[in-house]
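Quick one, T. Sequence first:
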Amino acid sequence: MSEGVVDAMGPVGYLVVEFPRGRSTFDREFAVELARLSLEGVIRVLDLLVIQKGADGVVQGFEVDDLDMDVVRALDGDLADLLAAEDVVRLAEVMEPRSVAGVVVWENLWALPLASTARRGGGRLLADGHIPLQDIADALVADGVG
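Structure tokens:
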């Protein structure tokens, strides 16, 4: 990727959410919230995939065009094909039978000015990640805060 493209992007993250067994569709409320965050300029959705695993273990992946949800189709203009068939296979291995998972890759637009400033100043990313919410909750309880 060229340096100019990297400088014009914020940090990129991803989320995989498995919905309960027996659900046959991607959760509409989740899709609406994703669209809201995108429309408000908090994030830019780079890729979105829905994976369905049947009771028999058969796996299907659905791109935005395959979904019957206008709110998600509105995001299609920004999408890139970042997720591959191998990603679907790996994710399906940990999914429960009869479940549906939403996979979202997004750019954190809110962090773009900070990231761009750091790069222009010669900074380079040494680490990136997320702290599991349960770890934070446990720490707060241990500190008597929660």
